[in-house]
Design brief:
Number of strands: 2
Structural class: mainly alpha
Radius of gyration: 22 Å
Shape: elongated
Strand order of the largest sheet: 1-2
Number of helices: 6
Mean pLDDT: 83
Strand content: under 5%
Low-confidence stretches: none
Number of domains: 2
Helix content: over 70%
Largest sheet: 2 strands, antiparallel
Order of helices and strands: HHHEEHHH
């Protein structure tokens, strides 16, 4: 049970739950509760049968399956594929869920150049990606996620008051 619990935890809690709640969050972006219901239904529709049949399968042929899978490397492949799928799905939702709108515009006569349109025209979604990567980097360096949330909130309010960011 010990070695398989680590695989199950990484598949369920580090892959399935973030994927389901990311999908649910995209449906709840406007403030509705539909996304929460979808996320909970998805998690339980996958998790409950997986645990039930996994328990039955593990009881009937657990040690034999582990020895065969270890020899072939099957479990490592499945785990790596599931983690990669989760990262791709969550990464694809970053531009939808992380919104930054610059309010800076430069005017030269009748020409108005918006910083937001310029950046999005060059590399769409780069600002949310950079902010997300910065947060990941800071969390890995030991910064508290709660501290980062508070700092981000204070910085967003200050930059909006200064006119650098706008509410979209």
């Amino acid at each position: 049970m010990g070695p398989l619990a680590g695989i199950g935890d990484s598949l369920i809690w580090l892959t399935l739950v973030p994927i389901c709640f990311s999908i649910g969050a995209s449906y709840s972006a406007e403030g509705g509760l539909l996304g929460v219901a979808i996320a909970l239904l998805l998690i339980n529709a996958i998790n409950v049968p997986l645990k039930y049949f996994g328990l039955k399968f593990g009881y009937s042929s657990g040690s034999k399956f582990i020895q065969e899978s270890a020899a072939r490397g099957t479990l490592d492949t499945i785990t790596n594929m599931a983690i990669a799928l989760g990262l791709v799905l969550v990464g694809g939702l970053i531009p939808q869920m992380v919104g930054i709108t610059f309010g800076l515009e430069f005017t030269q006569g009748e020409l108005v150049v918006s910083i937001q349109e310029l950046i999005n025209g060059l590399i769409p979604g780069v600002i949310p990606m950079l902010l997300t990567l910065l947060m990941c980097y800071l969390v890995r360096k030991g910064k508290s996620p709660v501290f980062l949330i508070v700092v981000t909130l204070v910085a967003a309010i200050a930059l909006t008051a200064l006119g650098v960011l706008t509410t979209a």
